[in-house]
## 1
Amino acid sequence: MRDDPLFYVVAVACLAVVVILMVGIGGFAKGGEFNRKHANRLMRWRIIAQFIAVILILLFVWFRRGG
C-alpha cells in the first residue's frame, strides 16, 4: 500500500481536511472578527476538500481492487 503514490495523495487530502476543520473550529471557539470574516469561507473550503478526499479514497480503493 505504501508503494502506491495515490496513498500519499489521499493522506495529504485527508490531512488538509483536518487542518481546515481545526482552523474553522478554532475560529468558532475564539469568536470575534476572524470568525465573522472567515467562518463561512473555511467551511466551504472544508466541504470542497472533503469531496476531493472522498473521490480520491474511492479511486484508491478502485485501483487497489484491480479496477
## 2
Amino acid sequence: MWTVMESPIGDLRIVEQHGAITAIEFSPFRSEGRPLGARSDDDPVLAETVRQLRAYFDRDLKEFDLPLAPVGTDFQQRVWTQLVGVGWGETASYGEIAHRLGMTNAASRAVGLANGRNPIPIVIPCHRVIGANGTLTGYAGGLERKQLLLELEQDALF
C-alpha cells in the first residue's frame, strides 16, 4: 500500500508492505520498480508515518519511531543502520561512516553508493552525510532538498 503527502520539499510517496515502511520517494515519482499495491491514506502505518513526517517538518520530532523494512544488501543494511545513528542537527562524512563500520577511508566510496541506495530517506537520514571537506555531495532527492533538510535541522538548534 502507499500514500502521498505534501511536504516542504515536495510531495512524498510513502510505501508500506507487511506492516513496515519500505520506501519514501521524492516527486516526480517513478512509475516502475517497487511494487506499490493500492493507495490507502488511512492505513495505520502509513498514517503514523505521515504524522511523524509532518512533526519532523514542523521541528517537533527529532527521532522517528516507525517499523522499517528497507531492502538492500548486507553492506547497505549496515550503512543504513549507521545513518540512523547520525542524530538531528548532526552530520557525518562518508569516511566517518566507514570508520564506524570498522573500515578505512578507502571504503568511503562504497559507503556513498550505499547511502545513495537508501530507500527510506529522511527517516533513515542519508541527507546528514556530507563530504569530508564539509561540502554537500550527491543526494538522490537532489542537492536542493538535501540543503533544505539540513537547514531545517540546523535552524532548530538556535
## 3
Amino acid sequence: MAADAVTAGGPRGPVPPAGKRKSLMGTRPWVVGLFLLPALVLLGALVVYPIGYSVWRSLFDADGSGFVGLDNYVDMFTDDATFTAVKNTAIWVAVAPALCTGLGLIFAVLTERVRWSTAFKVIVFMPMAISMLAAGIIFRLVYEAEPDQGVANAVIVGVHDSFADSSVYPKARPALGGDLKASGGGAFTTKSTVNTDSPALLPLVGIAPNKLPDSPQNAKPAASTGSGISGTVWLDFKLGGGGKKGAIDPGEKAMPGIKIEAVKDGKVVASTKAGADGTFTLPKEADGAQLRLPGSNFAAPYNGVDWLGPSLVTPAIIGAYAWMWAGFAMVLIAAGLAGVDRNLLEAARVDGANEWQVFRRVTVPLLAPVLVVVLITLMINVMKIFDLVYIIAPQPTQDEANVLALQLYNVSFGGGENQGLGSAIGIVLLLLVLPVMIINIRRLRRERQR
C-alpha cells in the first residue's frame, strides 16, 4: 500500500478536478485568456479583419458593387504598370538588402580597428533618425540635374572638368555671310586660306555681349606680322545694334580663350588661343592653311549624370535607401561581432591565415545567424518601400521607378480610384512577404531549441 502512495519522483498529492486545473505557472487558463483578450481584440481589429476584408474586396469591382471574382488579379498581372512594379520590387529585394548588409558588415569589421569607432558608428547610424520623407527630400536635392543645385552632379562635374577642358562659348556660331562654315564635329573652318599679308577675321555671333564670361575687353584689329599669320576672333554684335557686319566696330567684344588651328591637307600644322583682346598669331607654317575653330570651343558644358532619368532612377533610390539603413545593419552586426570568440580568430592567424582568409572563413561564418536576421528584416522592409520612391522619383520617371506599394496607392487613392484592384495588389504583396516571415519564424524556433 505504501508503494502505491509514492512514485519514483516522490509523493503525489490529490489530482484536482479538470475544471480547476492550473497552468505550469500556477495561473488558471481563464485568467490567462482574460489578460490576453485586449491584445487579441487589437490583433483582430488591426490585422485579421483588414486582411480578411482586403481578400473579400479584391473580388469586387472598382466601386465594390459588382462581383468580378479573380478578374482584378488577372488585370494586375496583365497591366504594364503593375508588371513594372513587380519587376522593380524584385530588383529591390535582390539588391537593397544585400547592399545594406554588405556595407554594414564592412563598417562593423573595419570600425574595430578605428580609434574613433564609436563616433564613426554614430555618424553612420544617424540617418536612421531621419524619416523616409525627410530622406527623400534630401536625396531629391542631391540628385538634381543642375550642377549648381545637386551635390552629386556638382562633384561629378568638378572631377570631370579637372581632367577635361570645358567649352568656352557653348552657344557661339559663325556670323551669316562670313568665311567660317561648319566642318563636322561642331567645328567651323574657313573656306579660304590665310596668308601673312592680311590678318584673318573670324566673327562669331549667338551670344549676348552681356553674357560673355569674365567681362572681356573690346576687340582690337590684329596687326600684320609679316612672318606669320595674325587675326582676331570677336563677337560681331553689340547692344543697341549698328556697325558693319564682318568688321570690328568700336564696342564689340573680344572672345579670348578660343582655340584656333591651322589645317593643311587635313592635318593640323599649328594652333594657338585668342588673347584678351581677341587677337592671335600663328607661325609661318600656317601660311596657306585654312583656319579651324575646333568643336571643343562650342560644345555644351558637361552637366553630370541624369540620376533621376529612366535608366538610373531605381539604382539612385536604392542608394538613398542604403544611406539610411546601412547604419542599422552595422549596429546589429557589430553587436554580433562583439560576441565572437576572439580566440578563434587568433587561432586562425597563428595557423597562417591572412586577414582576408580570417574574415572570409572565420568571421563571416560565425556571424551567419546575425547576417540572416539583418537580411530577412531588410527584405521584409523593402517589399513595403513607398516613401522614398514617391518623393525622389520625379513625375516623368515615376512609372519607371514604380514598386508594388506605390502602385497600390496610385491605383486605390492616387487617381485610379479602383480599390478592388488595389486590394488585389495588397494581397499579392502580403503573399510575397509571408514566405520570408515564415523562414524567420522557423529560424527563431531552431535557435530556441539550441
## 4
Amino acid sequence: MTTRVSEDEVVAADGYAKALGARLRAVRAQQHLSLQGVERKSDGRWKAVVVGSYERGDRAVSVQRLAELADFYGVPVSELLPPDDSPFSSGSTAPPLSRIVLNLDNVATLTDGHADILRRFVSSIQRQRGNLGARSLPVRHEDLSTLALMYDTSIEALTERLVRWQVLAPESVIIDSE
C-alpha cells in the first residue's frame, strides 16, 4: 500500500521541522551554549553538526532523540516543541481538543502493533504523575502534542486513531470543527 503525501503536507512538515529547530536553537542559546559547546559538554554524545542540522530543520529528529536532548538540556520535551500558537503546533487550523481521557483497560488490551507507543507513553505519564493504579488517564494538550509527534501525525489524526481504537473514556470531549 502506497501512501501519497500532498505538497501541502510536505510544506507543513518542513515548516514544523524549522519551527522545532528554532525552539531547539532558542533553548541552546538560553543555556549560553554554542554548537561546539554542546558537543564538549556532552563529551561528544551530541555532535555539533547533528544538533545544527536539527536546528536548521535539515534533519528529522526522532522522538527518542528529542527526549534525550531535552534531558541533556534539563528541560521538559514540551519546551522543545513549537508553541501552541505556532501555525505548526498541530498541523491544522481546527480548534484544540477540550479534553482527552484514556481508558487504561482498553489501552492495555490493544492488539494493534502501533499501540506499543501509546502503552509506553501512558506508562511514562503514570509514573510522572504518580497514579500507577488509575483506570483512566486525562491527557494534557502538551502531552497530546508529544504523543502526536511520536506517531508523526497531527493531533487531529491521532485523536481519530484513538477513537478507532476505542480507548477514549466517556468523559472525553472532542470539539468538532465542522
